[in-house]
Amino acid sequence: MAASAAASSTTTAAELRASRRRLVGDSLGIIVSASGFGLVLGLAYRAAGFSPIEVGAMGVFVFAGAAQFAAVGYVVGGLSWLGIILLTAFLNSRHFLYAAALAPYFAGASRPVRAVAAHLLTDEAFALAIAHFRRIGRLDTWGYFWGAFVATFIPWNVATIVGSLVGGQIPDPSRFGLDIVFPCAMAGLAVGLITGRREVVAAITGAVVAVAVSLAWDPAAGILAGGLIGPLAGLAMPGPKGADEPPLSPMPLGGEDER
Amino acid sequence: MSTALVGLALLMGLVTYPSRALPMLAPGLDRLPPLLLAYLRLVGPAVLAALAAVAVAVVLDADRNPSFHVGVEWLAVAACVLIVIRWRNLLAGLVAGALLVAVLRAAGIVPLP
After folding, report:
1. What's the CA angle centered on A188, arms A247 and A60, to 5 degrees?
2. Measured between CB atoms, which of A29, A84, A95 is closest to B94?
3. pLDDT in tens, B48-72
């Protein structure tokens, strides 16, 4: 009995280590992407006349790339603070979905941990965390803060401030193809979450709905609509306990050596 | 050094935080109905696919008007996805996607965005 428990514990620890290695590997692309676009945002801040303190405040308090980019345009365009705040709330409303999807994993975490984790929740943090938690089947606080803080918050904010200070000496990240890292990472991590027909349908529907609503209205609304409607379409498919569940295996990321 | 926009940043953060925190801090997270849990399990693939699709298929002009876009970005994402499916290695997929785009742009085959 004790030997069995010890073996189970060892297996769990080994799985956790393997999943953390994959998390760290996956996060390398996120670090590069966040750094590249942090620099570009810093340039935009500099051109718009933001001071380094204001740049830092945006990164620390808002910490949401799309909203920060949009705010530069709003400030330069002379939009009122009220308008900027309302648009920011709308742009960032998709985070509600991320938080809801991660919430069951955080159910056993302390309120301070959940409160801090919530502030660090971004597209990138969600993508890394949900893949990691799904692999290990539970919360890993270290893993969450690695993806949210080490791989996203630090590079994003450092690069943004550096960009605002250094200015035009920075080459355009798109020359190196870095603008493609974000969509590639999101698509790759989505594929990694696919374990059955429901996920496939949810992903395809989410993408189609998101593009359609984006074209008809606004990209922020499109992403939110895709994230809301995609899972509904997925639920319409037979569940995993059905006899016709497709023979798709879970797809861990990080290299064949750990399959 | 100006600090005039620090207050704006704080307010933007304040309106962002509830959407991030309410589901995480709400009580009863461990007693969600199975159907809701099944729904939430599908949010990940749906929203990540939505983010990727919008990033490559929708572009905004200077007035933030959206339009449909087909370009080398589609090839890069497809290459990344194929590598992830075949070799289950995201980093290799990201490098391949970025390299593909960088080479095609450097060769002048596709323009810079």
Report:
1. 135
2. A29
3. 999 999 999 999 888 888 999 999 9
What are the b/e assignments for B68-93, b being 16+ CB within 10 Å? ebeebbebbbebbbebbeeebbbbbb
Chain B residue nearest residue A203, CA to CA: B46
Displacement of CA A231 from its chain's centroid (Å): 18
A90: nearest CA partner in chain B: B16
Do the Cβ atoms of B25 and A115 come within 8 Å? yes
- pLDDT tier, A132 (very low <50, low <70, confident <90, very high otherwise): very high
The predicted model scores a pTM of 0.78
Chain B closest-CA separation from residue A236 CA (Å): 10
Closest partner CB to B90 (pick from A26, A126, A206): A26
Domain total of chain B = 2
Integer Cα distance of A205 and A211 in angstroms: 10
CB nearest to B53's CB, from A29, A101, A210:
A210
CB contact under 8 A, A190 and B48: yes
ipTM here? 0.89
Containing structural domain, residue B57: 31-70
b/e for B6-26, b at 16 or more Cβ within 10 A? bebbebbbebbbbbbbebbbe
CA A67 to centroid of chain Cα atoms: 14
Residue B96 resides in a domain: yes
Segment B64-102, tens digit of pLDDT: 889 999 999 999 999 999 999 998 888 899 999 999 999
Span A17-29, pLDDT tens digits: 999 999 999 999 8
Q: In angstroms, what separates the C-alpha of A20 from chain B's closest C-alpha?
A: 14
In a domain, B80, yes or no: yes
Chain B residues inside the 8 Å CB shell of A218:
64, 66
- Break chain A into its structural domains and give their ranges: 13-173
- B50·A252 Cβ contact <8 A: no
Report how far Cα A60 is from the mean position of its chain's Cα atoms. 17
B55 and A183 within 8 Å at the Cβ level: the answer is yes
